[in-house]
Amino acid sequence: MSSFPKPRNNRLTHEEYFALEQAEDQRYEYLNGEVFAMAGGSERHAMIGSNGLIALGNALRSRPCRVYSPDMKLQIATRDKFCYPDIQVLCESGRRHQNYVEGPTLVVEVLSDSTESYDRGMKFEHYRAIPELRHYLLLSQDRAHAELFTRNENGQWFFNEATGMEAAVYLSTWEIELPLAEIYRNLEFGITEDPLPVERDRSCVGTE
């Protein structure tokens, strides 16, 4: 998400939380009865997310998995939490409900300045409470760079990273690679997204 969620005052039941989202047509994170309004992301955030969604969908097309956009809510029951990962992959060990899913194998978050510490800290702590989770992937917005945390069969987490458009992320659960060139397709770095107009210095312009 583009900014850390802002808390509302009242504690809600799950049913009240679902009703609130439906009534306001707004996404909220939920944690132990508190809800937090989620702000929209930048154009670059959206591009990385959609590229990653397409890349994962293509790579897992023949697998018994579903790849979800940030519109799908995730429940982490042991933390009494509902949230909206940028991308999540649900396979045979996961569970689907009408309004949310549980037990994804992979969760992906696109980092931003305002949420990076949250994504690396408390959010990752909450995600680690998902028994089925095997991969947590963080994608930078500022460069072609991916950080992958992988949990082995003994419950230990290992870290790998990939940098540059020639690199790829290896997901051992499915033995597939995600090229960063696909995740960062149509993105340019080092260029201001909304450049200010340059005023021409007319003092040096000659006249005929």
Give the arrangement of secondary structure elements.
Blueprint: E1 6-7, H1 14-24, E2 28-31, E3 34-37, H2 43-59, E4 66-68, E5 74-76, E6 81-83, E7 87-90, E8 95-96, E9 101-102, E10 106-110, H3 116-120, H4 122-127, E11 135-139, E12 145-151, E13 157-163, E14 168-171, E15 176-179, H5 180-183
Parallel strand pairs: 10-11
Antiparallel strand pairs: 1-3, 2-3, 2-6, 4-7, 5-6, 7-10, 8-9, 11-12, 12-13, 14-15
Query: What is the number of domains?
Result: 1
% residues in beta strands: 25-35%
Q: With helices defined by DSSP (H or I, 4 residues minimum), what is the helix count?
A: 5
Q: Rg, please? A: 20 Å
Quick one: biggest sheet? 6 strands, mixed
CATH class reads Alpha Beta
The end-to-end distance, rounded to whole angstroms, is 56 Å
By CATH, the architecture is named: Alpha-Beta Complex
Q: Using DSSP, what is the number of strands?
A: 15
Biggest sheet: strand arrangement: 4-7-10-11-12-13
Helix content: 10-25%
Low-confidence stretches: 193-208
CATH superfamily: tt1808, chain A
Could you state the order of secondary-structure elements as H and E?
EHEEHEEEEEEEHHEEEEEH
Average pLDDT value? Answer: 89
CATH topology: tt1808, chain A
The rough form would be described as: globular
- The secondary structure category is alpha+beta
